[in-house]
Specification:
By secondary structure, the chain is an alpha+beta fold. It has eleven helices and 13 strands. A hairpin with a 5-residue loop joins strand 4 and strand 5.
């Protein structure tokens, strides 16, 4: 029941049920209104026909069972089936009473003017008739003399529970006047609502039987549609289960439908690409670390074994120990550099930003590198503006510039030139370090910021020229941590130019996060 397919099916079924109930309620309300209007129209037609000529209240003739009394006279042609049917329909449910609530006689039979059906549903009480007559007379006098007054609509139920619609009003006699007005009489006719109620009952039961069947059909349809809709999702899940660390190159093909599922597949494929890159980086990192650590450890072991088996004098032991300490120092530098990179990756290394004059920092560093530059026969110069305020971490900026200057001096031959420039632009600070050294081949440029990467042809044995292969990795994430960008232009045999642009106002996270390697 927790499955997505079941929940979708339940949603379809609930929506279908609510829709059916709403439509059924709307149609039922419309049907009730239509049937009610029809019943009112039929009674109005019978009332108009009765009042228009069939019924007259006047003095009964001498031949009548009630001679000389005001009685109900029905005028119609017994030979005309239409008129006969119309009068008989009216007389099925009717009542005629005087203004005091007493039923008047029928001129032909002398019987009270009400039907047995009306008697079954209940003769109106005299007090109610008197009140309605007075109400109708007041409405008539307020509008126009000798005009009909109010119409009274009610529903009544007989002894068997059958419902009738009753229309009541005032009818005036034809020959007697009282105080200048015709005498009013209370007349009520009715229409049975059994047919209407049967129609409503049948309609209701039809929908009561239809809704469960439709709900079941909607559930089955929802189950089928949900299964069809979830098939691609299940295919994606099965394809994802087949992806492991050994086959991260596998991708899930898109359906070319351009829908949300294709977007999900594309997002998943991009995630796999990032995982593949991370796995590859971790694999390469492990390989590089094992190689870099194995080299000094092997050298230390070899030197100590040589000293153990061949050294005979104190100087020989001292030399072996000195060489071993150098290799241990190199090993410590590698471990320390890797530890710093690990801190940067985990966000544990915090930038200590402060407002400072970057010109003074650069000038001090260039001054420190003048002695090694002169020893290497390289001319080192700086092009600095009078003032360059910046919100940066002094330690990290010094490390960045030191790595760039060290590399420039290391790979620039005697007689060459290294120049450092600083430009304070409106939206950024530009730091440039360029040399006239050996340059970097174009195929190596995308990799120079990778850890332990060394440009081919720069030597294979560790030495003072080669370094650890981590300096430019530090430069890359220091620039990224400050929210800047770094660009490299190099031509083999002519030199290399590093251009760094930092935001003029200190932006970026206060936590030094390792960005993706440049290139």
């Amino acid at each position: 029941m927790r499955g997505l397919r079941f929940r979708l099916m339940a949603s379809y079924a609930m929506f279908f049920a609510i829709l059916l109930i709403g439509v059924a309620s709307l149609f039922r309300a419309r049907l009730v209104s239509t049937l009610d209007t029809r019943a009112h129209d039929l009674l109005n037609q019978e009332w108009a026909a009765m009042k228009g000529g069939y019924l007259r209240i006047d003095k009964s003739p001498e031949t009548s069972p009630v001679p000389g009394k005001n009685a109900a006279n029905w005028y119609y042609d017994p030979e005309d089936p239409d008129e006969t049917t119309a009068v008989l329909d009216i007389k099925k449910i009717y009542l005629i009473a005087d203004e005091n609530g007493n039923s008047i006689p029928d001129a032909k039979t002398g019987e009270p003017s009400y039907s047995t059906t009306y008697e079954d549903i209940g003769i109106d009480r005299p007090a109610d008739i008197q009140a309605r007559v007075q109400d109708a007379k007041a409405a008539m006098l307020a509008s126009k003399p000798n005009t009909p007054g109010k119409t009274f609509w009610t529903q009544k139920t007989n002894s068997t529970g059958e419902t009738f619609l009753i229309r009541a009003g005032i009818v005036f006699d034809e020959g007697h006047f009282a105080e200048g007005h015709k005498l009013p009489y209370y007349v009520a006719i009715g229409w049975p609502l059994a047919a209407n109620n049967n129609i409503l009952r049948e309609f209701t039961w039809t929908y009561v039987r239809l809704i469960p069947a439709a709900l079941l059909l909607g559930s089955l349809l929802g189950w089928f549609m949900a299964g069809r809709a979830l098939q691609p999702v299940l295919a994606v899940a099965q394809a994802a289960q087949r992806i492991s660390g050994s086959n991260l190159s596998m991708r899930i093909p898109t359906r070319d439908a351009g829908d949300e599922l294709d977007y999900l597949i594309l997002t998943f494929n991009r995630m796999i690409e990032r995982l593949e890159a991370s796995f590859q980086q971790m694999k390469q990192f492990s390989t590089d670390v094992s190689h870099e650590l194995r080299t000094p450890i092997t050298a230390i072991r070899g030197q100590l074994e040589v000293a153990l088996f061949t050294a005979k004098t104190t100087d020989q032991y001292r030399e072996a120990m000195f060489n071993a300490l150098q290799d241990i120092d190199r090993l410590s530098q590698i471990v320390r550099a890797l530890f710093l990179l690990s801190q940067a990756e985990s966000g544990q290394l915090v930038l200590q930003k402060a407002r400072l004059n970057l010109c003074e920092v650069v000038d001090d560093l260039v001054e420190q590198f003048q002695i090694p530059a002169e020893a290497a026969g390289v001319r080192l110069s700086a092009d600095l503006p009078p003032d360059c305020p910046a919100q940066v971490d002094r330690v990290q900026i010094e490390r960045m510039i030191t790595n760039l200057l060290s590399n420039a001096l290391k790979f620039t031959p005697e007689g060459g030139r290294v120049r450092m420039a600083l430009k304070n632009q409106p939206d950024s600070i530009e730091i440039v370090v360029e040399d006239t050294g050996r340059g970097i081949p174009s195929e190596s440029l995308p990799h120079i910021f990778d850890r332990f990467y060394r440009v081919p042809g720069s030597g294979t044995a560790p030495g003072p020229e080669q370094g650890l292969g981590l300096g430019l990795s530090f430069v890359a994430w220091i620039v990224k941590a400050h929210g800047g960008k770094i660009e490299v232009d190099s031509t083999p045999g002519k030199g290399t130019r590093f251009t760094i642009r930092l935001p003029n106002e200190g932006v970026g996270s206060d936590t030094l996060e390792l960005a993706h390697q440049v290139g």
